[in-house]
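Quick one, probably user error.
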């Protein structure tokens, strides 16, 4: 999913200025058409061109915003969850709805004033109609002023969401800080991880893909310290991972050189087990130091030992999950 490409939502006045300019350009162009000698007819054609270009400019601007925003209900649950914890979801929907309301109003006004203009040949009426059209369209735009401001805020927030694939197997790598998560990600994906931002973390999430196209995410700052201590919104952002993760790899550092005791690390593991009802593979890293840890796949991310065994376990769990889904 890519929300990076969302176009900027401008202030309502900017759209009015653009429409005014487009109207003036169209009027200028129409003025060059001198086929009719009748002044009133020419004048009317000019005003009609102006009104049409002005109205269409506004309608197109709103249309563009509406189309560039993703349809929230159709977004992957992971992104819907992020929206719910970073934005006022009802207000976002209402603001998108307001665009449609305004478009309808503007279309109606364009229709009404174009028609009225076509029914008169009195020059003094032209300016009056033009001013009335401009006044009423401005008023419509003004009524959605706050909605446009909010949509721009949403766009900026959504731009900060990570670009993750939501339809592939995803392995989330968790564990206390410094246990070797990033080293392991690099080993499993054989590449330098891509970096993506994630709401509520100052750090970025790292992601990579293996030869089979499985997605791996290393989430520093998210699944590396007690979840209970987080506020509600932060918890929700962490839980959004549930929609994405197929399995979790929990990395333990039995050497405790990471700065956390094994007991602390086990407590974190228990929390993650409780929060995510997902298969978890426990790996004990830094086996090259001679540290021993039972009930886990022993690996050395640094030296690459035990990785084949881990890969086999990942493949087998992913396969089991896939089969379960197909049942
Ligand atoms: N001896 C040994 N050191 C390792 C191994 N894997 C990682 N390290 C070291 O452990 C430290 C932390 O590794 P990272 O991969 O950055 O750990 P991390 O879990 O991503 O750390 P944060 O992103 O800070 O949470 C680094 O100094 C690594 O060199 C290993 O298999 N053996
Ligand atoms: Mg790291």
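Nope, works fine. Designed sequence:
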């Amino acid at each position: 999913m890519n929300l990076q490409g969302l176009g900027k939502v401008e202030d309502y006045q900017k759209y009015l200025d653009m429409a005014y300019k487009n109207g003036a350009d169209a009027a200028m162009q129409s003025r060059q058409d001198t086929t009719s000698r009748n002044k009133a007819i020419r004048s009317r054609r000019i005003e009609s061109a102006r009104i049409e270009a002005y109205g269409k400019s506004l309608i197109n601007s709103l249309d563009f915003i509406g189309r560039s925003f993703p349809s929230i209900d159709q977004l992957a649950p992971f992104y819907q969850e992020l929206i719910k914890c970073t934005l006022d979801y009802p207000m976002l929907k209402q603001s998108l709805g307001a665009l449609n309301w305004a478009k309808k109003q503007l279309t109606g006004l364009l229709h009404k004033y174009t028609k009225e203009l076509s029914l008169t040949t009195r020059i003094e009426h032209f300016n009056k109609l033009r001013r009335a059209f401009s006044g009423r369209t401005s008023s419509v735009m003004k009524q959605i002023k706050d909605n446009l401001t909010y949509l721009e805020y949403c766009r900026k927030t959504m731009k900060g969401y990570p670009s993750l694939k939501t339809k592939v197997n995803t392995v989330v790598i968790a564990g206390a800080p410094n246990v070797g998560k990033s080293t392991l990600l690099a080993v499993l994906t054989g590449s330098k991880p891509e970096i993506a931002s994630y709401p509520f973390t100052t750090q970025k999430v790292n992601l990579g893909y293996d030869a089979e196209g499985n997605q791996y995410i290393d989430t520093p700052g998210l699944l590396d310290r007690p979840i209970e201590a987080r506020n509600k919104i932060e918890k929700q952002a962490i839980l959004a991972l549930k929609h994405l993760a197929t399995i979790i790899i929990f990395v333990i550092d039995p050497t405790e050189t990471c700065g956390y005791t094994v007991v602390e690390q086990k407590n974190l593991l228990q929390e993650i087990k409780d929060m995510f009802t997902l298969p978890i593979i426990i790996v004990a890293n830094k086996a090259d130091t001679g540290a021993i840890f039972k009930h886990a796949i022993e690996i050395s991310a640094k030296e690459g030992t035990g990785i084949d065994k881990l890969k086999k376990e990942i493949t087998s769990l992913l396969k089991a999950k896939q089969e379960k889904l197909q049942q």
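The pocket of magnesium ion (ligand 2) is lined by residues 181-182, 218, 220 (CB under 6 Å).
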